[in-house]
């Protein structure tokens, strides 16, 4: 059984991080959801938002439910494939150093995006939100650039998971949403196919 909360009124996590706002703006809203999940008897919680994992340690303190750590699980999988990566995600994910703090255990090399590339990634993310587009030559070009540097691109925003990735680039990306799905299935006692 699965219980889903699509909490559309949740404050924008990126804005909370970028503006240095009080974390409680997000945590108070999450706490309401956690009470529902606990009452339901949930055993595991999957949060399909990379930026949200900036609040991971704080949210863990609010519940006894196991929370799947999407960035950690992604880096764990990535460590089997390569030693260099680039995080393609929101400004909040980048400024909040979401992947950097969970990479401490794996010690892989993280390449930083330049400002122009980061601005382009944010444009792509918000365009997906606004139009539901599934094709982006620009995103594929960004991934290709980092492929030439020997880096695996982490699609660290669930909107980016919606984009069709060109065949020659599929071996140089890792999708945290796919990793989260796999871990959720495994924790439900099933095998991922």
Short description:
With about 190 residues, this protein is an alpha/beta fold.
Write the layout of secondary structure elements.
Blueprint: H1 13-18, H2 24-40, E1 44-45, H3 56-60, E2 66-67, H4 70-78, E3 84-89, H5 91-95, H6 98-102, E4 109-111, H7 115-131, H8 137-148, E5 152-156, E6 173-174, H9 176-187
Parallel strand pairs: 1-2, 3-4, 3-5, 5-6
Describe this structure in words.
Helices cover 46% and strands 10% of the residues. It has helices spanning 13-18, 24-40, 56-60, 70-78, 91-95, 98-102, 115-131, 137-148, 176-187, and strands spanning 44-45, 66-67, 84-89, 109-111, 152-156, 173-174. The strands form two sheets. It has a four-stranded parallel beta sheet. A two-stranded parallel sheet has the order 1-2. Helix 3 links the parallel strand 1 and strand 2 (66-67). The longest helix is centred in the first third of the chain and has 17 residues, at 24-40. The model has no long low-confidence stretch (mean pLDDT 94).
């Amino acid at each position: 059984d699965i219980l889903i909360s699509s909490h559309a009124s949740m404050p924008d996590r990126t804005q909370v991080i970028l503006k240095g706002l009080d974390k409680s703006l997000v945590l108070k809203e999450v706490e309401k959801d956690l009470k529902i999940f606990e009452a339901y008897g949930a055993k595991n919680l999957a949060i399909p938002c990379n930026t949200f994992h900036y609040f991971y340690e704080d949210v863990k303190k609010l519940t006894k439910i196991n929370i799947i750590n999407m960035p950690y699980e992604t880096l764990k999988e990535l460590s089997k494939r390569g030693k260099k990566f680039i995080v393609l995600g929101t400004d909040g994910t980048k400024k909040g150093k979401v992947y950097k703090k969970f990479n401490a255990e794996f010690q892989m090399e993280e390449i930083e995006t330049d400002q122009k590339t980061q601005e382009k990634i944010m444009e792509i993310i918000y365009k997906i939100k606004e139009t539901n587009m599934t094709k982006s030559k620009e995103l594929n070009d960004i991934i290709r650039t980092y492929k030439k540097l020997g880096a695996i691109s982490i699609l660290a925003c669930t909107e980016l998971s919606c984009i069709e990735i060109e065949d020659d680039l599929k071996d140089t990306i890792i999708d945290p949403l796919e990793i989260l799905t796999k871990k959720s299935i495994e924790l439900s006692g099933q095998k991922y196919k």
